[in-house]
Amino acid sequence: MAATAGRPAGKVSWQNAVRDLRLWLLLLTAVLTLVNGYLIFMVAPTDAVLGHVQRIFYIHVPVSILSFLGFLVCALAGIGYLIRRTERWDRVAHASAEVGVVFVTLALVTGMIWARPVWNAWWQWEPRLTTTLILWFIYVAYLMIRQYAPTPQQGRTWSAVVGIIGFVDVPIVYYSVQWWQSIHPRQVIGPEAAEGSLEPIMAQILVFSLIATLALFAYLMLERVGLRGIEDRLSQLRREGNTN
Amino acid sequence: MQSDNYTNRPSDAAILLDTDAEEERSGWRSNRTRLIILVGVIALAVTYMVYAAFPGNTQYFVSVSEFLDDPKLHDGQTLRVAGALAPDTFRREDGSASSRFALGDKELDVPGLIPGSRVMEASYVGVLPDLFFNPHSEIILEGSYDAENAVFTTDNILVKCPSKYQSLQAENPDVAPGAAGATQGGY
Lengths: 244, 187
Description:
- The complex is a heterodimer.
- Chain A is mainly alpha-helical.
- Chain A has one domain: Four Helix Bundle (Hemerythrin (Met), subunit A), CATH 1.20.120.
- Chain A is 75% helix and 0% strand.
- Chain A is built from 7 helices and no strands.
- Chain A is globular, with a radius of gyration of 21 Å.
- By secondary structure, chain B is of the alpha+beta class.
- Chain B has 2 domains: 2-57; 62-160, CATH 2.40.50.140.
- Chain B is 34% helix and 24% strand.
- In chain B, strands 2-4-5-7-6 form a 5-stranded mixed barrel.
- In chain B, a hairpin with a 5-residue loop joins strand 3 and strand 4 (98-104).
- Chains A and B meet through helix 1, helix 2, helix 3, helix 5 and helix 6 of A and helix 1, helix 2, strand 7 and helix 4 of B.
């Protein structure tokens, strides 16, 4: 890669390695996303009941699952931060909460677009949708608390606590369609998925779409963690400038 | 290159960390365990509260037979009743959007009515959802019961689709790919 060219091998720093990884991931994500689009619109069969609108499923389900992963990372990194108190854990927690909020927003929006023609309503106050909206609010609150805390130190601690408690809602969202009556379809993936709920070709395309979305998730995470590192360094320099 | 500057300095994170840790050491070191336990307790409490509170007072809808068996629901209160469209019961008034039909019980992810199920008369004025007539659909009526005329007056119709996705070919291998019926969903 260009960044490491012409330099002795031993001097290649981990930052450069991360930057290379980021570029490769970006490329990989772009290719996977294009292939994913082709699979969804050209290869996936049209659903017998729902028709073409069912294709939104291949986006809706992966972004929902990846938002769960984002909040899991946020909760674990929050625990890591509370125990170790190092900036690194907080960067990961912060980045994963932001990426998670983006994905859960996409899940809500794609869900609404899907619901309008099928359910005959954009939104219903039913368990799956309501608990997902609560999840959205929890992690938006997580991001706001960081800004509103009197000191950055308190912001990190308080948001870590919110991130950990907030994760409780994730299994509630997943099991909501099973615990309570719901207009939302049941799980088609994960521990509670009914057998035969997906035709094999549909399941294969869903798995591919999950991998493509995971690549996007990983890329956004790397990019955001790196950006947070630069932000921290900038505020460090500002502080040094003020004290001198 | 910019990135070189980063590597040669002591980790900026480490500098931040040291100052942070010193500021907070006396307070947080002793309280940390307590904080983690507190977080765990609150998390468990929230889970329990949500689990305990939800099913008690929010039943999203009742089935047709649950509705027929419970006279308390017949007093004109607004509620949702879910079921399947009974075959050959749909009638529309000529030149209007008024329709009459009957709803019976439906089993999850099984198309059509449960054989021998009792039915409830319903009326509706308005545009029907796209998947209203699909046998896979579970129809949810929002409205209230008009005891005088023995009909459920529907304000709004929702459609719940099966938690199962398959192509027309898989559902019915006799249909040739690309046949006219392949887009019966309309989208």
